Amino acid sequence: MTASAGTDDQVVVGVDYGTLSGRALVVRVRDGVELGTAVHPYRHGVMDSELAADGQPLPADWALQDPDDYRDVLRHAVPAALAASGVTPQQVIGIGIDFTACTVLPTLADGTPLCELPDLRTRPHAYVKLWKHHAAQPQADRINALAHQRGEPWIGRYGGKISAEWQYAKALQLLEEDPEIYARAERWIEAADWIVWQLCGAETRNVCTAGYKGIHQDGRYPSRDYLAALNPGFAGFVQKIDGPLAALGARAGALTGQAAAWTGLPEGIAVAVGNVDAHVTAAAAQAIEPGRLVAIMGTSTCHVVNGTELAEVAGMCGVVDGGISAGLWGYEAGQSGVGDIFGWYVEHAAPDGFASHELLTEQAAAQPVGAHGLVALDWWNGNRSLLVNHDLSGVIVGLTLATRPADIYRALLESTAYGTRMIIEAFADARVPVKELIVAGGLTGNPLLMQIYADVTNRPLGIIGSAQGPALGSAIHAAVAAGAYPDVSAASAAMGRVERNAYLPDPGRARAYDALYAEYRRLHDHFGRGAEDMLLRLRAIRNAARSAANHARADEVALPLEVMA
Questions:
Q1: Which of 5, 17, 38, 353 has a C-alpha 20 to 30 A away from that of 388?
Q2: Pairwise CA distance, residues 197 & 204, whole Å
Q3: Phi, psi (5° rounding) for residue 463?
């Protein structure tokens, strides 16, 4: 900043990388006032059916991205947010980013993504594997089975199961399906750390993703012997992810000249260590205190809460020392599909005349609890917690000829609330207290959904006081990295905000939901805990059929080239 600018003039930038776009937010340091924001959509979006480079079909359950789309957010969203804020670049003292966790990519030792090498542009495994890339479930199953067989001490820290979304399962899939790409990958890195690398020119690894997604516990990664038992070629995998770990809120480095040119920010300002979109939101919602669970609701939902004691919670995504904030045990759980489920119904299943969230919400809100006679499982994108199985799929029970679109829509809303209640009860069973529920994310604007969550969980709901929770959280961490506050807790108190008790449970509706939730639990355990494997068999049949169709399509694409040759 310039010598003429006072402390009250200081601002920071938070950048939130989501599934389909990135958002930049300019925030005043002294009080967290949001001054300007801008969004930039990813040009390639999510590649889940074909590779953009050549149109080749992708197998079932794949989800790839192009990392240059992430740089484009720096090139476009950051300058636009700064222009909208009315402040000068010289007032900016730091930048922080958050990212969807389990979004990982292979790179060279200097950070060059393998997909940007000319000879690898058409190799799908060279690209970013997005969090919702679920094709590594077979590898995850083997990781879990071997860990239990050997009694690996870290498996309990993750509720007994490693997810197919995480670093190890995706890397093992890479090794076994494209060993050449695996061998050329000198680094295997979360996108949160990679984009910080792009900003400051130095590789850093944050304790959050290392702990939750990289199986780093008690100062160690899984042993070489364990990894070799999975696959001899996997023995040295830790070398691709190992490196000094930095605490959340720490300074990763200084903004490089190249990144300054992209963003329009001053060279040399502080770059905060990377973070996860959900975990960084706790600071924005003033939810650092133990017992305040934050549910970040968007396309999926992530649940994070701090605790003072270490406990192993069945089906959780993990518990990590300092994973949310320093000095506390951070717990994470999640649901793989929430807003995506509602969007699927409106875009692909609702009949003509009903394909509107607003209309369906209005009609669903007029119903008394239980009037539709339905119960649904919220597994349209698999189950993250408590079952940690992404081969599971959605179920709706109770359909009749009298069922109408709003009935199904409300049942889907309710199903996600039931899934959150399962998570809260699992925490309670493990003696991790949840005293308060705070909701953040894009779905907070739906009053019906928020009231359903209050009634189903029978808890008062607080609502974060910002529509840009992750970006605000990243800005808070940037302020700490720049030295404006001594720690994240102090910055959160000054810059974060929340509306407490925004929705209160209705006792009558809560009792009615108790009965429906009991049916949800029966359905959940029947299809999810081994009583009936029908959903897994159906997924296998679907994948086999799609694989055969993709091979046929690939042959058709290649045929003209063969004829020309």
A1: 17
A2: 7
A3: -120, 130
Same domain, 523 and 538: no
Q: Is the peptide bond before 386 cis (omega within 30 degrees of 0)?
A: yes
User: For position 550, what pLDDT does the model report?
Assistant: 81
The amino acid present at 123, given as its one-letter code, is R
Question: pLDDT, tens digit, for every residue of 221-234?
Answer: 999 999 999 999 99
In a domain, 128, yes or no: yes
Q: Are residues 198 and 261 in the same domain?
A: yes
**What is the DSSP code (8-state) at residue 514?**
H
Enclosing H/E stretch for 307: strand 301-307
pLDDT in tens, 497-547: 999 999 999 999 999 999 999 999 999 999 999 889 999 999 999 999 988
- Spatial neighbors of 406 by CB under 8 A, at least 6 apart, are 354, 360, 363, 364, 367, 372
Q: What is the pLDDT of residue 554?
A: 67
Decide: helix, strand or coil at residue 249: coil
| 550 and 508 within one domain | no
The number of CA neighbours under 13 Å toward the Cβ of 191 is 29
Name the residue range of residue 543's domain: 534-565
Contacts of 384 (CB under 8 A, 6+ apart): 163, 165, 300, 317, 333, 334, 335, 336, 390
Question: Going by C-beta distance under 8 Å and a sequence separation of 6 or more, which residues neighbour residue 543?
Answer: 59, 60, 61
Predicted pLDDT at 552: 78
CB-based burial, 153-192: b 16+ in 10 Å, e otherwise: ebbbbbbbbbbbbbbbbbbbbbbbebeebbebbebbbbbb
The secondary structure of residue 561, as a DSSP letter, is H
254 and 301 together in one domain: no
Q: Are residues 548 and 438 in the same domain?
A: no
What predicted TM-score, i.e. pTM, was given to this entire model?
0.89
Radius of gyration of the chain from its Cα atoms, rounded to whole angstroms: 23
**What digits encode the pLDDT tens for the residues 118-145?**
999 999 999 999 999 999 999 999 999 9
| Gap between the Cα atoms of 240 and 215, Å rounded | 13
Residue 558 pLDDT:
55
Count other Cβ atoms within 10 Å, centred on residue 195: 24
> How far out from the chain centre does Cα 447 lie?
23
For residues 172 and 547, give the distance between their C-alpha atoms in angstroms, rounded to a whole number: 20
The two tokens of residue 496 are: 């974060």
- Amino acid identity, residue 270? A
Residue with tokens 């604007």: 445
